[in-house]
Amino acid sequence: MTSFFNGLGFLFEKVLFIPMDIFAKLELKNWWTANIITWIFILITCYFFVFWLKKLQLFKSNNEDTQDTTAHSFLK
Fold first, then answer.
1. What is the per-residue pLDDT across 32-44, written as a single tens digit (0 to 9) for each?
2. Please, are residues 64 and 57 in contact by the beta-carbon 8 Å criterion?
3. How far apart, in whole angstroms, are the C-alpha atoms of residue 51 and residue 56?
4. For residue 34, what are the contacts with CB-CB under 8 A and spacing of at least 6?
5. Which regions span the lipid bilayer (predicted)?
6. Is residue 43 within 8 Å of 35, Cβ to Cβ?
7. Which of 9, 38, 60, 73 is the most exposed place for a label (fewest CB within 10 A)?
8. What HEC string does the chain produce?
9. Rounded distance, CA 24 to CA 45, Å?
């Protein structure tokens, strides 16, 4: 059973973290290049946030958005 957990430790530390080790070494040379993945995810998130807000506005303008201000029936 110990060898199983040692194998998992090897997998996560030596194999799956290879890209993170590369970025950690790269960060010492150029911060912008090392954080390019973060910037890509930020841009994708901003795009879909704007997309979501436009869809909400579309539903609101078509009166398809039903808003009930009470959370529960006992609050009425």
1. 888 888 899 999 9
2. no
3. 9
4. 23, 24, 26, 27
5. 31-53
6. no
7. 73
8. CHHHHHHHHHHHHHHCCHHHHHHHHHHCCCHHHHCHHHHHHHHHHHHHHHHHHHHHHHHHHCCCCCCCCCCCHHHC
9. 24
Q: What stretch of H or E contains 13? A: none
Please count the CA atoms within 13 angstroms of the CA of 10 that sit on its side-chain side: 6
The tokens describing 57, both together, are 């506005």
Residue with tokens 């009470």: 70
Q: Which two tokens stand for residue 75?
A: 């609050």
- Name residue 51's amino acid: F
- Per the rule left: phi > 0, alpha: psi between -120 and 50, beta: everything else, 69 is alpha
Residue type, position 36, single letter = I
